[in-house]
Here is the input.
Amino acid sequence: MNFRGKNIHGKMIISLQNGQHIGKLKGLVIDPENISVAALLIESKALFKDKMIIPYDKVHSVDEIITVKNTSCLEKASKNTFTGRLVKQNFNLFGARIITEDGSILGTVEDFTLDVKTGKIMALSITGSVYEKYFKGMAELPISQIVTIGMDAVIAKAGSKEALLIPDDALAEKIESIKDSSAKLWSTTKDSTLKWSKQLSATLKNLTSSKEDTQQNHQESSLEETELQEPKGKQSIDTASNTESEKKHR
Here is the structure.
């Protein structure tokens, strides 16, 4: 089972031996050489002057509650022990800058994926301008790409950018976002097309109506002209008839 590092913080720690609440998880002690969690830093109920830890190999399980075999797992972070020195060095992955061997900046560590059975760190979740723009800051860098975890930066292999993975949830969210955008675009295009079609129909109707009115007015005008021309023709015929009559009488 894998857990996000940030999701483990604040969990209660219970002893399986007697059900005693030992304390809350305050932080994780990172082993930079093995790229793993060496111990749990405990926010103990007791007022200890020294920092208290539980070595990770003493952890029984991690879920909603962290369980350990017994209360004797709790120990002081002695400066003379390897784990104690790690506590003092305080390697903090959260917010660490990731730089490649060829000098590129990949981003900063937002979180990491932890194999709760072994304590091994499996991948780093990083943020950066490119990932924030397209996937809300989510990209996974496999731990196989890490060369060194230092106090001021995490060093990754040259070309690690090509090894970045997009988490399924972030990718699914992006796909849904694209679908929503496409649906909105289609809806807008459809509405615009319908509106344009209605406007075009109205325009054609007005043009047709105007053409019919023009034709009707033209026909009416032609009839009026015809009616006005008929008397003139008749008058010409009458005049010609009168002239012939006069010639006969002469």
